[in-house]
Amino acid sequence: MEYSRELVLKVNEVYHNIIGEIYDKKYFQSHVDEFYRWQNFGKQYLANNYNKINILDIGTGTGFIPSIIGKYLKKEDLFICSDISTKMLEICRKKLSNKRFNFVFKILKLDGNKLNLDPNEADFVTLNSVLHHIPEFSSLFKEINRILKIGGRLVIGHEPNKIFVKNKFLFINFRLINLIFDKKRIFPTILRKIKFQKLSKRLEYLYKNNCNSKVKNIINRGEIVEKINESIIKMKIVEKPLSSTEISTLIDFHSPTAFGYRYDKGINIHGVVKKFIPNFEIEYFETYNHLGKASNINSFTKFYDLLLRKILPKKGATFFVILKKAHEISSL
User: Fold this and answer.
1) What is the pLDDT of residues 74-113, one digit of tens each?
2) Is 89 helix (H, G, I), strand (E, B) or coil?
3) Cβ distance 319 to 151 under 8 Å?
4) Under a CB-based contact definition with an 8 Å cutoff, are residues 8 and 250 in contact?
5) What's the CA gap between 276 and 142, in Å, rounded?
């Protein structure tokens, strides 16, 4: 089914407004996993940079990136925190104000189309766990190319690697290991295979409720779906409510595991660069999480993940990349 760009962006905006207060708790582990990569970026590119630095963080959320690299910035540096979600930006503003960083920070509400910055204004553009939410990349990269200086860096973290998804051995291996070590899924899956559908759904429901109870004030999945539908129907973007599956798909548009397993999803960053920003060079590229969430469950999965990473370093489930704008191009 085809979805309009406006619908995808609006569903993401409403969703992130709803979960803003519990976002950090909900995605705590993914933030822990990415922390040192952004810290290393800050040490290498910002710590000893004596020029005035302008950074635009797209999809800043609750302020994950500025909270990590802020200590490497100077008083005269500018950090622009931008997001499509008003609620996320409110939380980000409070968080950064409490941290009392030296640098100047500004809040920019995005409309999903244009970045309100002047040409060549940014030295760095950063995105963490953002790209897979965006339905099409042409407009975004055209704007990034416009505002980023020659020699500037575009840094993209925590995105699903399409090269991993296209490798049938790795993707099947990933699914199998996660099934074996994930108690919440193995029993419902077995019951589903032997045609006990109702019992399988009941177990899945009970597990989700148990997980939700561990995060204070977490919003029920049904509530989220209801609120999103109420909002997009009121805006006349759709005429009838979307299903939970459709909304999950729209929120994590390019994710191969957002709802079930999809071999047609993921992001091929090499293909993206070639198609949308051919004037950029890949300066650093890392992939990891060859077993997904199971990578750190126990000593066996840690060892197995490390082995796969050594054998297939460019085929992990998640990638982190630093791109350098080498020169301008006449048109995109």
Assistant:
1) 999 999 999 999 999 999 999 999 998 989 999 999 988 8
2) helix
3) no
4) yes
5) 7
Count of alpha carbons within 13 Å of 252, Cβ hemisphere only?
A: 17
Rounded CA gap, 88 and 91, in Å?
5
Residue ranges covered by each domain of the chain: 5-164+264-325, 170-250
Q: How far apart are CA 98 and CA 65, in angstroms?
A: 15
Distance of CA 150 to the CA centre of its chain: 26
Rounded to whole angstroms, the Cα distance separating 13 from 175 reads 30
| Contact yes or no for 65/125 (Cβ under 8 A) | no
Cα 310 to Cα 55, 163, 234, 321, distances in angstroms = 33, 16, 51, 18
CATH code 3.40.50.150 for 5-164+264-325: yes
In angstroms, rounded to a whole number, what is the distance separating the alpha carbons of residues 326 and 332? 15
Cα dihedral value 271, 274, 275, 276, nearest 10: 110
Q: Name 239's Cβ contacts closer than 8 Å, sequence gap at least 6.
A: 233
**Entry pTM:** 0.88
Q: In whole angstroms, what is the distance from residue 201 CA to residue 189 CA?
A: 9
